[in-house]
Design a protein that fits this description.
single chain, alpha/beta, nine-stranded mixed sheet, 26 helices, globular
């Protein structure tokens, strides 16, 4: 993360109270902070914080960062190896996160302008971004990129403040007691907004009241506080805060209390907008916003209230609210034309969000080149030449091979870009003069300020298929990965299962993210899955769980590692080695032991013979020995699970004793990671839990939903009583009905077992029963009591209406639901 301010490393040492292990150059200038070795842009001006958590230790990546040009480091422990970096600066502190916060706090203290601080359960990011839309013409605003509102995200965001800024908007989120006091010291809001309170992030608080009490600490020194008095827990805590901060000026709004500063007298929802009647200073005013849901209305009232606190006239507020735009808080990854991959981030464009988008671009390896389509940055900069020079450095660091610039400012500074380049005055100019067929086998990042309407470019470049989509949240995949990592012992490796199209979630798209987040191994079912990943740029070790003789050539050629489960499989592999590899070529294998599944694997009594065979063949290297648990998800099988673990330990001990090189051992699947920590061994295999499905029977988990299956209403019809619906006339209406036809059927993964009132979908939060037989490509649902329109979104499953619920209706398990979703269903990947 960069800012225009420069600090000497010697001054930073004083600010964070660091012990100087070694200072090669006390005059070193720092303008960037790095916490991720993969995201360094300008190495020689970066300070790397080696942040240590219960899941990782940033000091492991010092050599990687050093190779990228970084010469200044903040560490939590001394290490003799630091002496190898004689030209580097090392600062020693007790807590790297606190040191980062101290530096950001010191930086914030240099600026004296209005700063809005936002907290609450929901709506923080929307309110922040809408305030930016409403105020950016009047102020040069610094704000969190996307939802960087954590203990690390907030200091990184505040570090962005520079001398051009004269306004700040920062959101703050907490999940633990005593966290907010640190964020308050960094943000130091002069104006506070408490959006609302709900169940989000409740796990670590004893009550909603305690959570409000913690969150409100953000405003302990604020001058103004804006909130809705309809939330009684917030109202009660505000009154207590007022006793402490007696100069705090309150601005309240309410849909119930006419004595509030802003009284909401009426809300009328239409199809595309909401008409609001408000009373302010005893005067009624009609206001319209282009959204038709209460969450958006609530967010809008916080924005209206903020503008009133800043003395904006109501007529200006009304006019600006009409132009509010929806906020896309997630990057979209989609398949594009001509074997391209499209990353769509066409709703905002500033230095910080560009850096986040480039980080995501760096995760992608499936195409041969990288292209960025970039609009002007609308943020003010006195020296645009310098700003675009820095952007060029970011693109070079991200290995971007081509830039297409759109806008007058970026075109005027075209000479600073050192890669292949083209420039256009506006989107219309680009669409008229650029041949889209020239895009081939590229990953294309589309990054534009909202005013440029880059969605027109995205729509042209993405493949036009099927309106039914499976949305996959990559952030949730990584959350689930880190959750399971937190349950394993230090040093235990992770093998991620990406077989069966990553349980229906995609192949290289998921593998790219897992590789970026340092998973140790991937596992696929068949060789062709591994080959696809290799061709997409995946370099991680890949275990093939069901190697077939016809696939051994590909396994050898693409450096895959087969599971060996029988002497026949071992013999066939050795034959393939003789045919396809030279005599000095070795192959890594994974030996499977059958400890009770009775499926594949060597039996324990075959152990001695197997070891002798392996010892007698110099071309075979055992990478791991493993087994498969039968029922680790259910307590009723615990005795059998413990027996399996015991057998596995005995067998694997023999391998370790007789083969004189390191061998990984693994038996734990997702449920065993949770329930049997003693079975971690050297590596764990993470499968269904990675994709958000709770792997343990009758036990809650902290997993996040990953997949949402959605479609749209294609047509709506009125059906009379006694009229039949669908094939074979298996459904006869017993009353007049309204039905909607959806473009999804059994060829997409919706089984016919759900037809004729068994299954249902969700439209505008209401249940719509499936009527008639499910067709290959379509099905019909009853929307008689739902006010819906053609084109409206339909949810098959998501985080609220879970895959498990659907699996129960189908009489199956969630695995089958996920893997049964046809590959013709378009996958769209999101990442914050």
């Amino acid at each position: 993360m960069s800012c225009s301010n420069n600090y000497k490393i010697s001054d930073i040492a004083k600010i964070i109270n660091a012990k100087t292990l070694h200072i090669a150059n006390p005059e070193s200038i720092i303008s960037e902070i790095a916490i991720d070795s993969r995201s360094v842009v300008i190495g020689n001006k970066s300070l790397f914080f080696a942040i240590k958590t219960n899941r990782n230790d940033g000091s492991k990546y010092i050599d990687d960062v050093y190779k990228k040009g970084v010469r200044s480091f903040v560490v939590e422990a001394d290490n003799p190896e630091f002496a190898n970096y004689s030209d580097a600066n090392f600062l020693l502190i007790k807590n790297s996160v606190r040191a980062l916060q101290q530096l950001a706090q010191n930086h914030r203290n240099k600026f004296n302008f209005p700063v809005v601080g936002i907290t609450g359960s929901n709506g923080k990011t929307i309110v922040k971004e809408w305030l930016y839309q409403l105020l950016h013409n009047d102020y040069n605003i610094c704000r969190n990129p996307k939802s960087y509102n954590s203990q690390i995200g907030v200091p990184l965001s505040v570090w962005q403040i520079n001398s051009d800024n004269n306004f700040g908007i920062f959101e703050a989120g907490i999940s633990l007691v005593d966290e907010m006091q640190y964020l308050q010291e960094i943000i130091k809001p002069t104006i506070g907004i408490f959006t609302n309170i709900g169940a989000a992030h409740q796990a670590n608080f004893t009550s909603v009241e305690q959570k409000v009490e913690e969150k409100i600490k953000l405003f302990v020194n604020a001058n103004n506080l804006i909130y809705c008095t309809d939330y009684k827990q917030i109202d009660e805590q505000v009154k207590k805060l007022k006793e402490v901060n007696k100069s705090l000026q309150l601005f309240t709004w309410s849909t119930k209390d006419s004595n509030a500063d802003l009284y909401v007298k009426n809300i009328k929802y239409n199809k595309q907008n909401s008409n609001l009647t408000i009373c302010y200073k005893n005067t009624d005013t009609e206001i319209s916003i282009p959204f038709a849901d209460y969450a958006s209305v609530e967010n809008a009232f916080h924005c209206i209230s903020t503008m009133l606190v800043f003395n904006y006239p109501l007529n200006i507020i009304k006019n600006r609210l009409k132009n509010l735009q929806p906020i896309a808080m997630r990057l979209e990854l989609k398949k594009g034309i001509n074997n391209c991959t499209i990353i769509n981030d066409s709703y905002s464009n500033d230095i910080n969000s560009l850096k986040i988008a480039l980080d995501f671009l760096n995760q992608q390896h499936q195409n041969s080149s990288k292209t960025v389509i970039l609009s002007d940055l609308l943020q003010t900069a006195d020296d645009k030449h310098l700003m675009y020079t820095n952007i060029n450095n970011m693109l070079v660091s991200s290995n971007v091979s081509k830039i297409i610039g759109i806008g007058s400012y970026i075109s005027e500074n075209s000479e600073v870009f050192s890669m292949q380049k083209q420039f256009y005055n506006n989107v219309s100019d680009f669409l008229s003069n650029h041949n889209m067929s020239n895009f081939n086998d590229e990953t294309i990042l589309i990054k534009g300020a909202r005013d440029y309407h880059f969605e027109d470019i995205s729509n042209l470049l993405q493949l036009k298929d099927h309106e039914t989509v499976l949305e996959i949240d990559i952030n949730s995949v990584i959350h689930n990965l880190n959750y399971f990592r937190s349950l394993t012992k230090p040093g235990v490796k992770t093998m991620a299962m990406v077989k069966a199209f990553s349980y229906g979630s995609g192949s290289y798209e998921i593998a790219n993210a897992l590789q970026f987040h340092n998973v140790d191994y991937l596992a696929v079912a068949y060789a062709d899955e591994g080959v696809e990943l290799r061709k997409a740029g995946i370099t991680l070790p890949i275990m093939v769980m069901n190697p077939e003789p016809s696939g051994y050539e590909a396994i050898i050629r693409f450096n895959l590692e087969p599971e060996i489960f029988s002497f026949r499989a071992l013999n066939l592999l050795l034959q393939a080695m003789n045919s396809y590899a030279g005599e000095n070529k070795s192959i890594s294998i994974h030996v499977k032991i059958d400890t009770g599944m009775s499926r594949l694997g060597f039996t324990p009594d075959q152990t001695d013979e197997l070891i002798n065979r392996i010892k007698g063949n110099k071309n075979i290297v055992v990478k791991s020995i493993f087994s498969h648990l039968v029922g680790s998800d259910d307590a009723k099988f615990d005795d059998f699970t413990k027996q399996q673990i015991s057998i596995f330990k005995d067998v694997s001990d023999k391998f370790l004793q007789q083969l004189n090189y390191p061998i990984l051992r693994h038996i734990s699947n997702s449920s065993a990671i949770i329930r049997f920590p003693e079975a971690n061994f050297d590596m764990v295999r993470l499968g269904i839990g990675l994709y958000g499905i709770n792997p343990v029977v009758n036990v809650s988990s902290q997993l996040q939903n990953v997949s949402s299956l959605k479609t749209v209403i294609t047509q709506i019809k009125k059906i009379s009583k006694n009229q039949s619906i669908g094939y074979s006339r298996n459904f006869i209406a017993d009353h007049d009905m309204t039905i909607a036809t959806l473009p999804i059927g059994y060829a997409d993964g919706i089984p016919r077992s759900l037809e004729n009132m068994v299954g249902h979908v969700y439209i505008k939060g209401k249940t719509a029963k499936i009527v008639g037989n499910i067709c290959m490509d379509m099905m019909m649902v009853d929307i008689t009591n739902i006010d819906a329109n053609e084109g409206d979104e339909v949810v098959i499953f998501n985080s609220a209406e879970t895959i498990n619920k659907l699996a129960e209706l189908m009489g199956t398990i969630s695995y089958e639901v996920l893997t049964g979703i046809s590959q013709r269903v378009k996958r769209v990947y999101f990442q914050d």
